[in-house]
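Q: I have 343 residues here and want to know how they pack in 3D. Can you give me a structure?
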Amino acid sequence: MSITSDSEYQCIAPIDFISMTKVPESHTWVLNPCDENLLESIPTIDLLDPNAISLIRHACEKWGIFHVINHGVSSQLLDEVELQTRGLFSLPFDQKLQAFRSANSISGYGTCRRSCLHPKRMWSEGFTIVESPKQDVHKLWPHDHHQRNHFCDVMVMYRNEMNKLAETLLDLMFGSLGLTQEDTKQVKPKTGLKNPYGPLQLNSYPICPDPTKAMGLAAHTDTSLLTLLYQSNTPTSLQIFKEGIGWVPVHPLNGALIVNLGDLMQILSNGRFKSVLHRAVVNNTHHRISVANFYGPPNDVKLSPLIQLGNLDHLPLYRSVTWKEYLKIKAKHNTKALEFIKN
């Protein structure tokens, strides 16, 4: 385990949450609560609905997030992904630390990178898969060849299914913007969407002795084109910010996946679709699991608004930017990053 400095270690290293009987000062937040009794809820879209394309357009314009059902991903695979994820985070703390990622790495065990942007730490732990998880998984189960292989096989299968679903959703989103299939064929090679890139992020939100003082994941927008999220059927943890309303809970929906738009989609749509501000809170009764598949182009591909292909009267709101470049801007300016690439 290679750590470059004590400060960087403190920033990205989780604590042994199971041993905590109270929330330490380092993890104590002042929270802006969410009204759990709100009647507002994110849209649910059936991909078999003949009106799916118009429903997706409305959801992307008004919410930036929606549930999707009849998505083609088997419930058996989703169950197995949750089982394997829970198994990983149920390992003894010292064993998980064997796969701890260094400060200059992305893959492996640790806390959310954006933890370093906040004065307080978060009540969560994660495991990030960028390419093959084999090296990190070997550190977790050094003597269990079968478990290592099975875990890797499940995650590869899940990631492949998520990427196929993301491609389907992108085609529907592009179509809803007035881009023809011919436009899409020309755009995809240019933007690199035929060679998608993005990490698979396994998240764990352990039971918290005092949820009123802790934050699972601080408010943020994703940088991806879109994120496909599976969350366990536990008390509501995910919340989104809706203008004019405040924080809205995203209640689990059995068999559904969550689709939320990232900043790159806001750029591609020329601001017509909005990336969604969201956060995760914790509870004192259930250990919540989520698995996020971030979908986007290769890091070095230039992105610029595609809406100009559908309507030449609209000037691009944002300058061209690569995902890699934008990540650096996001690391510095967080939720205000989009303001720094406006034309």
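Q: Anything worth noting?
A: The domain at 44-341 is CATH 2.60.120.330 (Jelly Rolls). The CA atoms of residues 107 and 128 lie 5 Å apart.
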